[in-house]
From TrEMBL:
Record's keyword terms, sorted: Amino-acid biosynthesis, Diaminopimelate biosynthesis, Lysine biosynthesis, Methionine biosynthesis, NADP, Oxidoreductase, Threonine biosynthesis
Record protein name field: Aspartate-semialdehyde dehydrogenase
Function: Catalyzes the NADPH-dependent formation of L-aspartate-semialdehyde (L-ASA) by the reductive dephosphorylation of L-aspartyl-4-phosphate.
NCBIfam families hit by this protein: asd_B, PRK14874.1
Binding site for NADP(+): T9, G10, A11, V12, R36, S37, S155, G156, Q309
Keyword NADP: yes
Pathway(s) of this molecule: Amino-acid biosynthesis; L-threonine biosynthesis; L-threonine from L-aspartate: step 2/5; Amino-acid biosynthesis; L-lysine biosynthesis via DAP pathway; (S)-tetrahydrodipicolinate from L-aspartate: step 2/4; Amino-acid biosynthesis; L-methionine biosynthesis via de novo pathway; L-homoserine from L-aspartate: step 2/3
Lineage: Bacteria, Bacillati, Bacillota, Erysipelotrichia, Erysipelotrichales
GO biological process, one term: 'de novo' L-methionine biosynthetic process
PROSITE patterns (UniProt xref): ASD (PS01103)
SUPFAM superfamilies, per database record: Glyceraldehyde-3-phosphate dehydrogenase-like, C-terminal domain, NAD(P)-binding Rossmann-fold domains
Quaternary structure and interacting proteins, as annotated: Homodimer.
Amino acid sequence: MKIAIVGATGAVGQQMLQCLEERNFDCDLKLLASARSKGKVFSYRGKDVVVEELNEHSFDDVDYALGATENDLTKKWMPWAQKNNVIVVDNSSAFRLDPDVPLVIPEINPEDIAKNHGLIANPNCATIIALVALNGLNKRYKIKRIICSTYQAVSGAGVKGIKDLENQSKDPSIPSQAFQYQIAYNLIPQIGSFDDLGISKEEWKMQNEGRKIWHNDDLLVNCTCVRVPIYRSHSESITIECEEEVDVKEAQEIVAKTEGCVLKDDPKNGIYPMPLDTTNQDLVYVGRIRKDISDLTGHSLIVFCCGDQIRKGAATNAVQILEKLVK
Ligand code: 2RA
């Protein structure tokens, strides 16, 4: 079985390679990237793999592909893959809302994988981290509305974002490559362009994608997405309004048993999720669970969660989908 990683030298592509290696995924691997990266050598299961330049014949001998390129490039190479009946798991946002394309978090809607017509989309990182944290609570309390503030790591903007933070942490005068403003010692309340409602592209994703993943077209979400000077983990402060009355102790027990989650909730003893703790591992940490005192109906709960954006927010989720595909 031959698997291609498309965009193999970017932050997500490199993490996909590492995830496959960690899982000792039995396959021949093809690494595809731009001409700039052609000839670079990486190791996979003890063998050297040389990066090849992506072109229309790249998929002639490929069975599955993991997509780790931006939207425009993804739209260019997807037909090349589909012409060869390659099954693609794509991390870009290009096809996420296409009705014929399953949008999957394996812990939540694995049954949707089988509905694919050759393409499965990976949700946005902030969506994955929030919905994994909330999935058990949604099953028990039926979430109607989500109000979410995200604190998104620079890795969401790829290698350039990581480099900006590295450089500016030493010398803040170094101009940003990935952001409009200095990111070190700063916060930027913009991820993606704004529409006429003043909502950014990133902020629409959680509602649009959450509705598709949870099969709930009535889900209402209001997001404020902020870029923060953290390397790899996204953090999210989330208020959920539910159909059922919520109970904090029960909610803690539910989260502790929710697949993909770790309960970190003993604030008086300094136990709560922090981005440094979730960096470079695949679980979503959830804590600070408490009733929303501003909702007198008792139907609202607040949680705080953290997850590694490059791993569970992108690469690991895609590899988990691939594992279910090839089983
Ligand atoms: C970001 N979620 O954090 C977007 C894309 N990875 O920039």
